[in-house]
């Protein structure tokens, strides 16, 4: 009986240590990824170019994965930890818009984030 109580307490402590991502952060990330989806830009992941919709889908999966491991406190943390490079190869993601030179996704996403935030002020 004591063994089960100890396991329950430890399991509860582990779940309590991981808080949910704040709703405003999750909404801001989804807005940012929708902006990527509708931008007409392409997203490079591990040497292949994908549409904005495919990029959004991939990054939402990474968001779910990262959020399952620890609490994402802000959108910049999500960009730095999940949306700037491949977790398998370590290669930086890139965004290419209307034939312009590709830029690292972290630069593009943080720039778009600034636009989103200034529009909501």
Structural commentary:
There is one protein chain. This protein is an alpha+beta fold. It has one domain (19-119). The protein has five helices and four strands. Strands 2-1-3-4 form a four-stranded antiparallel sheet. Strand 1 (42-45) and strand 2 (48-50) form a beta hairpin. It starts with a helix and ends with a helix. Residues 2-16 have low confidence and may be disordered.
Biggest sheet, in brief? 4 strands, antiparallel
User: How many DSSP H or I helices?
Assistant: 5
How many domains? The number is: 1
Helical residues, percent: 55-70%
- Which sequence of strands runs across the widest sheet? 2-1-3-4
Strand content: 5-15%
- Overall, the morphology is globular
The CA-CA distance between the termini, in Å, is 56 Å
SSE order, as H and E? HHEEHHEEH
Features:
4 strands; alpha+beta; disordered N terminus; DUF5329 domain-containing protein; 121 residues; signal; DUF5329; four-stranded antiparallel β-sheet; 10% strand
Outline:
This protein is of the alpha+beta class and 121 residues long.
Write the layout of secondary structure elements.
Blueprint: H1 2-17, H2 23-37, E1 42-45, E2 48-50, H3 52-69, H4 75-82, E3 94-96, E4 103-104, H5 105-119
Antiparallel strand pairs: 1-2, 1-3, 3-4
Helix pairs in contact: 2-3, 2-5, 4-5
InterPro entries: DUF5329
Protein name: DUF5329 domain-containing protein
Pfam families: DUF5329
